Amino acid sequence: MAKSERRAFGLNTREAWWDDPLSDEGGGPDRVRWPIMGAAFLLPFLIPVTKSLVARPEVDVEVVLTGVLVYAYALCYLLFPIVFSRPRAVKLGFGIGMNVLGLAVVAAASANPFILLYGTAVMVFLTPAAWAVIVDVATLLAGALVLVAEGKFLDDYGDLITVGSVTLAMFFMANLIRAVRRLEQANKEIATLAVANERQRVARDLHDLLGHSLTTITVKAGLARRVLESSADIPRAVEEIREVESLTRSALSDVRATVSEYREVSLSAEIVGARAALRAAEIDADLPHAVDNVRPEFQSVFGYVLREAVTNVLRHSGAKQVKVKLGDTWLEVEDDGRATEVVQGNGLRGLTERLAAAGGTLRASARSGGGLLVRAEIPLPEPRAAAPAVRAEPAGGLA
Fold first, then answer.
1. Taking a C-beta distance cutoff of 8 angstroms, is the pair 136, 96 a contact?
2. Is 27 left (phi over 0), alpha (psi -120 to 50) or beta?
3. Helix residue ranges, H only, 58-152
4. CB under 8 Å to 104, separation ≥6 — which residues?
5. Long-range contacts of 106-111 (CB under 8 A, 24+ apart)
6. Greatest pairwise CA separation for the chain in angstroms
7. What is the CB-side half-sphere exposure of residue 322 using CA atoms within 13 A?
8. What is the reported pLDDT for 301?
9. How many whole angstroms separate alpha carbon 363 and alpha carbon 344?
10. Separation in Å, CA 93 to CA 18, 71, 116, 366
11. What pLDDT does 10 receive?
12. Are strands 372-377 and 361-366 parallel, antiparallel or unpaired?
């Protein structure tokens, strides 16, 4: 696995700290069950604070404002799952505002600093890691200043440390959840790409297969028709129709095998088929009689190239002559048709992709006198450096 892939799901990159694309898609606690769970979490905070407010001898503005702050802070905790589907700025503003409310409650109601945990926990789940660290650290420092100002720092600093420790644990838990979500998203993308690649493979193979087969069938059917119209040579026409029937059956079998990914193209068989198709189209074919000089691992790919090149000649070129040359790592198909420029159709694009998968290249160029030259080449892999030979000395040493 590459280094960049190993870092994709951790906190080792700037993007992982500042970007949190998955949280923009929603998520968070269940909105139906969360209010019940959240209320249970809030009771240890609300009960003692409410008792202290009710125990005041008289209701004044300070008591009312303190009660508003306390219950606004609690309400924010209950409603924070709704903010998960909001834009980044809204979530950041909500988290900062809730932490400010928590500090205000600690200052106004002389509450235990442990209640700051509600705001710091919400922050780590709502915002990217960097913002959570910045806001939560600032909240804890501000909470320490409030305790110092009230003269309770020595009594309650332990609770502040507990808030920091629990917040840190939640920070790592939140980022673990994000990593799991990223993995789920990556798996979905991989599945989508696999389906797309399989569709592309089937489309490319069917194009290469049916394009050649149907073109050859069309040429042979046309030849049989011309024989019947011109000379009424029934035996020859019947023979051509038999070949059309054989080609149709072969094409049907190849389609089934291609869809099942069991079909393997043979270069020698493609040369035989190309010779028959070109002869039927009355095109002079200069084809090799053997493929022994071509490396075996390249023959299947070159078979596809020959098939597509001959199909293009039959369809579009208007050529009178086709010449095919073979080397150990290359193949050339040249025709004398009327083409003056190269047009990248589905066939050439499919061949380019197929050769690129094998580490090769496809070049198509127009000849000066008309026609096309298609060259496919697959370079040999570079040989590995041989290990240096170790010279062994005789057991008895030098004589």
1. no
2. left
3. 61-79, 88-109, 116-126, 129-150
4. 69, 73
5. 106/143, 106/146, 106/147, 107/146, 107/149, 107/150, 108/62, 108/65, 108/66, 108/69, 109/49, 109/52, 109/53, 109/66, 109/69, 109/70, 110/150, 110/152, 111/45, 111/49, 111/70
6. 122
7. 28
8. 87
9. 11
10. 16, 19, 17, 64
11. 61
12. antiparallel
Cα dist from 278 to 133, 273, 313, whole Å? 73, 9, 9
d(C-alpha 151, C-alpha 229), whole Å: 113
CB atoms within 10 A of CB 241: 17
Give the pLDDT score at 312: 82
Residues 6+ apart with CB under 8 A from 48: none
* HEC letters along 346-380: HHHHHHHHHHHHCCCEEEEEECCCCCEEEEEECCC
Q: Which amino acid is at 97?
A: G
- CA-nearest of 310, 303, 302 to 330 is 302
For the record, the structure tokens of 287 come out as: 């084809």
Note whether 110 and 83 are within 8 A (CB). no
Output the six-digit token pair for 111: 């509450």
CA–CA separation, 283 and 209 (whole Å): 21
> In whole angstroms, what separates CA 306 from the centre of its chain?
32
Report residue 60: phi and psi, to 5°: -125, -175
Amino acid at 226: R
Question: Which secondary-structure segment (H or E) carries 285?
Answer: strand 284-286
pLDDT in tens, the chain (399 residues): 444 444 445 667 777 787 765 554 555 666 678 888 888 888 888 888 888 888 888 777 888 888 899 999 999 998 888 888 788 888 899 999 999 999 999 888 888 898 899 999 999 988 888 999 999 999 999 999 999 998 888 888 898 999 999 999 999 888 888 878 777 777 778 877 777 776 776 677 666 666 767 777 777 788 777 777 777 677 877 777 777 777 777 777 666 666 555 556 778 888 888 888 888 778 888 998 888 888 888 888 888 888 888 888 887 778 889 999 998 899 999 988 887 787 777 777 878 888 888 889 988 888 887 888 889 999 887 665 544 544 444 444 333
Q: Which residue has the tokens 């922050």?
A: 123
Q: Which two tokens stand for residue 9?
A: 């799901």
Tokens coding 102: 């928590």
